[in-house]
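Quick board copy: two proteins, each given as sequence then tokens.
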Amino acid sequence: MPINGICDPKFEAVREAFAANFAQRGEPGASVAISIGGRPVVDLWGGYADIAQTRAWQRDTLVNFFSVSKALCAISACKLVERGLLDLDAPVAELWPEFAQAGKEAITPRQVLSHQAGLPAIAEPLPDGAALNWQTIIHALEKQTPWWTPGTAHGYHVNTFGFLVGEIVRRASGMSIGQFVREEIARPLGADFYIGVPAAEHHRIAEYCWPGTSPIELGDASDPLTTMRWNAYFNPPGFSGAHWVNRAQWREAEVPSTNGHGNARSVARLYSALAHGGAIDGVRILSESMLREATTEHSHGEDLVSQRPARFGIGFQLTQVERPLGPNPRAFGHFGAGGSLGFCDPDTGMAFGYVTNDMGPRWQNPRNRAPIGAVYSSI
């Protein structure tokens, strides 16, 4: 499989690991980019941008990178904190009065951003396609009772995170989360990522190889946590993308937890700024103090939704033994379904972006671990 792009000779091991993804690990199409000290050293792409494998992946190909976009939501909220438009510890209801229902009066943005709000799922049955309608999800979340006492535990808000943070951003800034990301993060950085892709850019989007799914049994319907976990992923149907991912309606909508689109180069560009105190090439994304707070551990331990160990700061996933982001303790970023990943390591000044169009292993993915190992062996 031809691999295109640039690779500093010092990082030839990354090119080899990326090529091995196609030769040995079933990669259909992907891109990987790495910067060290703010300087791009790897920018590679290869494979196919369609399921039929007739269209080659190009330098500017975009792909759905799923939960990588949660970091964009978190950065948006943090920028509003810096501007004095959002208080992490004031009730969400001060900005969003309709949120103060069903025991949510005291929930704070900090709890939402660290997955402690108790709102990972919607109990009210919603129809297929409801995730494409912003107000439908927002109204359901307004009525939802927390699944646990907010602040007492954490659970990955798989699909609701982006709607909760996005509505907070909208109330505080007057902009939708997609508009805020575009105007306040992507455009200043010169980064090619979106939450809600304009129709004029759809020709650049790779088709996603989403596997067929078998019906999933709910299990013990009398167990609230079992019900919560099922609803977190499957209510409404297609909440995580599933049969919607390759449709124009999905690409254009703002489904902020899951339908971010971009390429590895732009993800690495973002994390290159974050690796260097929040700024690069004169563009400041976050202040150093805000970034320190955002990457301080807020949640740690068994996750009530994923049922795995997890560490979160304010929106960012923090490195952990069970799922390391390289060997150094200050690394942070965010994984996306299928293995897409953006992260940085402030100790080495390394920024990493990887995106793929295949739903590979979600927890431990050899396709992102191989180039991560290669870059650290090369530093």
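And the next:
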Amino acid sequence: MNTAEDWLQSGIGRHIVCHDHSLSTIWEGFVNKVSVNTGNLSVTRGELMNVANRVHIIYSTIDPTNNTVIGTRAKTTATNDTTSQALYGILQKVLSVGGSVPADAAKIQATYLKENANPETSRSLNLGSEGGQSGVTITIDCLGYYHWLKTYVYNQTVTTGTINASAKIIAIIAAQLNSIISSTTDITSNTVQVPAFENDDYIAHNILQDVVNRGDSSDNRWLFGVYQDRKAYYNVMPTNIEYILHLMDSAQKMESNIGAEIYPWNILPGKWLMFPDFLVGRTAETNPRLDPRCMFIEDVTYTMPWGLQLNGGKTTTLMQKLAKLGLAGVGA
């Protein structure tokens, strides 16, 4: 019970590292939520990503004499809960309240900050059922450090015009409030031009996602992720086969393109996988996008000790073209 109480009170935000048998880091992140079950009582604390300890409000000004909206965009000065920031880092939220006068916006901001500066605690009690004498269980929900890109606003009002997409991504990461992402040395240069100026109080993650979606000047897809040692990676979608799986292999071993075994916990998304014993005799395609024996891994779910689920998707250049035009999608 002492261990459960420690996790419940102090576990939010803890750094979690997973190693394999060779002590290589296969995943690292932080505790986002903790749940404790003891007897008939369940207590959950978190999510950390819902905490707001730096808050400001965007609103449209109104004329208080006749309560009509003037429509001028205004924003309050950000306020901070430094006690919460010392415990969990700076987690910034931008609120929108529509039409308001400055005094009302300030009251809403103060109330929101007070009620959201610490992780929420919820409780559930179920009496009259079995389980009252059962032991204590702890469930820890974690997220990768990529999610810290959702915790701060990115504005840049010094430089106008356009800059390289890769330069903007580096600038967005450099503006982080908590120095969570440790390195940008693995961000590959991409010279496609994107707007440098930002002054709309958009969350950094949303701006970064827009930049990544644009691809490059040839409309190739680009990928962004935060992996081992909290390093940021930004590079063009690969065209080579990196993983091999023989469907008739009873051991279901994943191999590299040179035949070395790859354990399921080391499989990453954003790679090409080929099934060489599927559609045997088909002429090989030079482009894996056109080969039905190839799968581009969009997401990976690993379940200890040997479970692995991979999902693939269609890869095209259309999404990059639409993103450059500021369009979300197209229908037929």
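Board note added afterward: Helices lie at 2-10, 82-88, 102-116, 165-174, 204-213, 318-324.
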